[in-house]
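Async update (no meeting this week)

Hi team, since we skipped the sync, here's where things stand on the single-chain job. The sequence we agreed to prioritize is pasted below, unchanged from the tracker. I ran it this morning and attached the output directly underneath so nobody has to dig for it. Comments welcome in thread, and please keep replies under the output.
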Amino acid sequence: MKKLFAILLVLCLAILPAALAEAAQEAAPAEPAEGSEALPLPIGDYNPASDFMFTGKSYILPLVERDEIWNAPSMINVSFEPCSRTDWHSHAGGQILIAVGGVGIHQVEGQEPELLLPGTVARVEPGVMHWHGAADEGWFCHIAIETNPDTPGFEMGDKITDEIYEAALAQARALHEEE
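Output:
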């Protein structure tokens, strides 16, 4: 029974990213949201994952999808409304985030939070819990790259409460000022 459960769990985790991308493509295009016009890329479509693993709303615009020709990892522009953020989560293959617009925040479990400014690259090792989102002053977007595409899988963790978010943002700003 445990073996069957493990197989079913692996299958579900393997198809989750594709299912989310498909659901987003089927969704009606997002109306330009107030403030998002300052971002360098279109916000894309409403991210259905916002309903179960985010606080606030996010939008996704697929830029590169994995295919048999290029075998490149998927790359998605993710736009966050102010204060929107993911819950703690991990990617079995790891993830690279490239900040491209606005101000964001990112934290790897066990590490100090950091501000994400345009051009900042955050690397998250495979299987490591982390969270990321927009600062409170405006919209934020980053390009999310799913690394090691042959290692699918995703694990969800706890919500980032308003108290945790506000404390992390204050700490990230203070650390940034020290640099």
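Quick observations from my side:
The chain has one domain: 2-178.
The two ends are 53 Å apart (CA to CA).
Reply here if anything looks off.
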